[in-house]
Amino acid sequence: MSQPATLLVIDDEAQIRKFLRISLSAQGYRVIEAANGTEGLAQAALARPDLVVLDLGLPDMDGQQVLRELREWSAVPVMVLSVRASELQKVDALDGGANDYVTKPFGIQEFLARVRALLRQVPQVGSNPAQANFGPLVVDFAFRRVTLAGAEIALTRKEYALLAQLARHPGRVITQRQLLKDIWGPTHVDDTHYLRIVVGHLRQKLGDDPTAPRFIVTEAGVGYRLMAPAP
After folding, report:
1. C-beta of residue 224 within 8 angstroms of C-beta of residue 206
2. Which listed residue, of 24, 107, 122, 217, carries a Cα 20 to 30 Å from 186's Cα?
3. How far apart are CA 128 and CA 72, in angstroms?
């Protein structure tokens, strides 16, 4: 007998969560809940749900940000459930990786039908691992946390973004222009000194010698790649 599908509901309204829990449980689904974006991302990583129902108006971060961070490592279907009814909001969410968009107030029968439809879909791309391991270096995408030999390393947003970008493509060279575009934006693709400074700080925190690197390798004039240390 197959296991019931697990649905994660991320919504700060306790009444909405209770209503959805009762309605979905009555259909045989397993329901887990989160009241904010941080908790929702953690639950998504730990429980690996089959479907996420996401509110956009969360107390700690915007639901669009939750969606972006989730899409960095997971292809789980996401249904946005929000009071935001403008076409622009819907387009932004769908372009950002949402699979469906339902506005509040909503009819429960239509909602359940949309849930069934999403659960029938096979994700077009597989989920990436929630974390990447490079010997003693671990990059946890779900929790945006980096540890070295078990100790957490405090990184700035730019340092984490750079390391995470390299960690998602282990062994592959990512050009300076691509890193600058992805992390600083398209207007900074020629500001290579930004990149050199952040790489330098990141190497210091990782104890990585640029002349004999364990992790970050410079491809002169091209870009950088992340490698696992030799066994």
Report:
1. no
2. 217
3. 8
In tens, the pLDDT along 210-227 reads 888 989 999 888 999 998
Total number of domains in the chain: 2
HSE-CB of 154 using CA atoms within 13 angstroms: 0
Laid out side by side, the sheet with 30-34 consists of 30-34, 6-10, 51-54, 78-82, 100-103
pLDDT in tens, 70-90: 887 888 899 999 999 899 989
Name the E strands within the chain. 6-10, 30-34, 51-54, 78-82, 100-103, 131-134, 137-140, 145-148, 151-153, 174-175, 216-219, 223-226
Domain closes at, from 120, 141, 173: 120
Residues ≥6 apart with Cβ < 8 Å to 2:
none
Please indicate, yes or no, whether residues 101 and 136 belong to a single structural domain of this protein: no
Encoded tokens for 165? 């970008």
Q: Using only the alpha carbons of the chain, give its radius of gyration.
A: 20
Domain of 26, CATH number, reads 3.40.50.2300
What is the DSSP code string of 6-73? EEEEE-S-HHHHHHHHHHHHTTT-EEEEESSHHHHHHHHHHH--SEEEE-SB-SSSBHHHHHHHHHTT
Q: Are residues 138 and 44 in the same domain?
A: no
